[in-house]
Amino acid sequence: MMTEALVIGGVTGLALFLAVFALIPRRASLAGRIAAFDASRVAPLHKSVITEETGNESALTRRLGGALEGFCSELGWEFPSLRANLRLTGKSFESFLGTKALLGLFGLMVPLFLLSGLSLLGLHLSFIVPVWAGVIFAVVFFFLPDLELRGEVEKRRRDFRHAIGAFLDLVAMNLSGGRGVPEALMAASEIGDGWAFLRIRDALSNARLTGQTPWQTLGQLGAEVRVDELRDLAGALSLVAEDGAKVRESLTARAISLRRKELAELEGQAAERSQSMLVAQLVMAGAFLVFLIYPAVQTLLHS
């Protein structure tokens, strides 16, 4: 009993020490300063999206995540795929790291606290079991934000593709009204008020400030959010930007292709759900048959 209490207290103290040590500001190294400078060059392009989420984060999560981000920067760990997914969902990298660390720490401590409660109730268990359970819980809790992020990213990319189809139709209509390609792109982006249209509108506005062409910024946005349809659109616009008739035909064809692809995906999802419902019905029917046959089988076995 005394040994288990000492070990639990030691592990708890070590965890609290590591958490406090991570929150203590340290002198940044040269590699960390260079990484922060590189990140600050990209951050203004996404500031309007990220600040919308950081207002709901706790100071502890941001502080701990900032320390972990600096540590990763010093080691050269950049996580480009993870950062792209976080930018798509409007979450900051430091808050994500802080959440993962806190959840992992929580998962590590839960079995130890349960062991302490059972010990107070007079139930004595081997200390090896809660230690391994704590490690397993810590790993599972640590990767829970990744699973949540993956599902949200898939949903966001699907919504983005749907918004691109509507955006193409709006651009084609603006081109039919006699506007040029840059004006048609900006006018179409100002019609929608969803988050996807907001990202497109911000990219086109940044193109005017940086002196790039609208299709170049759309291509960069497509690479950032990893939506191939937007990158293909940027490539097509760069080829036929001077010919309004070809642009209209190309945009209309791409919008039709996107809608057909989206319809095919929806039909595939509906078919998968139908198969799942069929399996569930078969399982229920089998359980009902077992419920009906079991009394007769029991009677025959005992007769």
What does this molecule look like?
There is one protein chain. This protein is an all-alpha fold and 303 residues long. It has helices at residues 2-23, 30-42, 47-54, 59-75, 80-89, 93-120, 128-176, 181-189, 195-210, 214-225, 228-240, 244-302. α2 (30-42) packs across α4 (59-75), α4 packs across α6 (93-120) and α6 (93-120) runs antiparallel to α7. The longest helix is centred in the last third of the chain and has 59 residues, at 244-302. It is flat, with a radius of gyration of 28 Å.
Q: Helix content range of the residues, please?
A: over 70%
Q: Count the helices. How many? A: 12
**Quick one: biggest sheet?**
none
What structural class results from the helix and strand content?
A: mainly alpha
The fraction of residues in strands falls at under 5%
Give the overall average pLDDT: 76
- Please provide the count of β strands: 0
Shape: flat
Features:
303 residues; 12 helices; 84% helix; 0% strand; flat
Short account of what is shown:
This protein is mainly alpha-helical. 84% of the residues lie in helices and 0% in strands.
What is the topological layout?
Layout lengths: L1 H22 L6 H13 L4 H8 L4 H17 L4 H10 L3 H28 L7 H49 L4 H9 L5 H16 L3 H12 L2 H13 L3 H59 L1
Helix pairs in contact: 1-6, 2-4, 4-6, 5-7, 6-7, 7-8, 7-12, 9-10, 10-11, 11-12
